[in-house]
Amino acid sequence: MSIYLPIAELPINIFLVLGLGAAVGFISGMFGVGGGFLMTPLLILVGIPPAIAVSTVPTHMAASSFSGTLSYWRKKLIDQSLALILLAGSLAGTWFGVWFFSLLRRLGQLDLFISIAYIVLLSGVGAMLSMESIRAIIRAWRGTPAVLRRPGTHAWFHGLPFKMRFRQSRIYVSAIPVVAIGLSIGFLGAILGVGGGFLLVPALIYLLRVPTTVAVASSMFITLMTMLLATVLQSMENHTVDAVLGLMMMVGGVIGAQFGTRAGQAIRAEQLRLLLGILILGVAARVAADLIHKPDELFSVIAKEILR
Amino acid sequence: MNRRTAHLLAISLAAGIFSFAAMPATAQKLVSSISTHRVLINSSFTGTELVLFGTIEDAPNAEIGKYDIVVTVRGPARSYIAREKARILGLWVNARSREFARVPSYLAVLANRPPREIGSPEFLRANRIGLQNHIFTQQIGNDLADVTHSDPFREAFLRVKTDEGAYISDPNGVTFITPRLFRAGVSILGTATTGDYEVETLLISNGKVLAKQQTALEVVKTGFEAFVAREARRHGLYYGLTVAFLAIFAGAIANLLFRK
Question: What is the pTM of this model?
Answer without folding.
Answer: 0.76
